[in-house]
Design goal:
Elements (H helix, E strand, L loop, with lengths): L3 H5 L8 H22 L8 H13 L8 H19 L5 H19 L5 H20 L12 H9 L5 H25 L2 H23 L1
Keywords: Membrane, Transmembrane, Transmembrane helix
InterPro entries: DUF1275
Pfam family, one: DUF1275
């Protein structure tokens, strides 16, 4: 029986990493759901959306916050920049553990009053770290944070083994958004972020075990 990783990347020796990236994509969907629905129309992973929101806010549209999106962009960029500076000397496992720590901190801070800005910073930093560290894995069509290129490739390219990766990536993001939206409505944002943290902890545990 093929492993999940082999099914995603037939013919390529990647171990369990592709399956772990699928879980990280679910985490992204949950976290962006919480940030958009609970923190005032801001994304912590989808920077394209934030750039558009800044344009809306400057044009006078009142729904997007003029401070939240720039804060998320700056925090995401800082996380990606720091990861890029040390990527060659630090393992993907370590980056995932750091991201887990930031996510757990966000869950704890979320309970406090007026904590939206701090939560945005923590979540966007983590997503910047995740996005930059995943780039260094070299696995195509599994960025875990953006799907525009993945969706374009799915419909524009000739059918092939990449179709599986692209479909799974899109389905994972959708699943995360569905979970995040449901928990936001019925259990609260802290519960949604806790589920994301549990998933990230599971990925971290697998990576630590494999690297041990």
């Amino acid at each position: 029986m093929k492993s999940a990783a082999a099914w995603l990347l037939p013919g390529e020796e990647r171990g369990v990493l592709p399956a772990m990236l699928v879980v990280l994509t679910v985490v992204t969907g949950i976290v962006d759901s919480v940030s958009f629905l609970g923190l005032g129309n801001v994304f912590v992973a989808n920077m394209t959306g934030n750039v558009v929101f800044v344009g809306f806010a400057l044009a006078g549209v009142t729904e997007p916050s003029l401070w939240a999106s720039p804060l998320a962009i700056a925090s995401f960029a800082l996380g990606a920049w720091a990861t890029g500076r040390v990527a060659r000397g630090v393992s993907f496992t370590v980056f995932t553990l750091v991201h887990l720590g930031l996510l757990v901190a966000a869950v704890l801070v979320l309970a406090g009053p007026g904590a939206d800005a701090v939560v945005i910073v923590l979540l966007a930093l983590g997503m910047g770290i995740q996005n930059a560290s995943v780039r260094h894995t070299g696995i195509p069509d599994m960025t875990t944070t953006v799907l525009t290129t993945t969706l374009t490739g799915l419909v524009a390219d000739s059918p092939g083994t990449a179709v599986r990766r692209r479909v799974v990536s899109i389905a994972a993001m959708f699943t995360g958004a569905l979970i995040g939206g449901f928990l936001h409505l019925h259990a609260g944002d802290a519960a949604a972020l806790t589920v994301a943290a549990v998933l990230l902890a599971a990925v971290s545990a697998v990576l630590v075990r494999l690297s041990g």
